[in-house]
């Protein structure tokens, strides 16, 4: 895969139905004939079947690591 300098990026976590929204976004971008790919940043808890669905829709799935606040973080 060639690196691209521009892309649409969205985020997905967990195993809920939010994957359907990302599929809708991917379809909308295709309908609009977007020239940029859709990159989906996923946390490790996104199931493989959801990742497979996204890839079948032409998404680039990239796993990312969660970032947690430091122990001395005050809310």
Automatic annotation (TrEMBL):
Broad enzyme group: transferase
Pfam families attached to this UniProt entry: Glyco_transf_8
An annotated Gene Ontology molecular function: glycosyltransferase activity
Family according to the record: Belongs to the glycosyltransferase 8 family.
Protein name: Hexosyltransferase
Organism lineage: Eukaryota, Viridiplantae, Streptophyta, Embryophyta, Tracheophyta
Keywords: Glycosyltransferase, Manganese, Transferase
Superkingdom to which the source organism belongs: Eukaryota
Enzyme Commission number(s) from the entry: 2.4.1.-
SUPFAM superfamilies in alphabetical order: Nucleotide-diphospho-sugar transferases
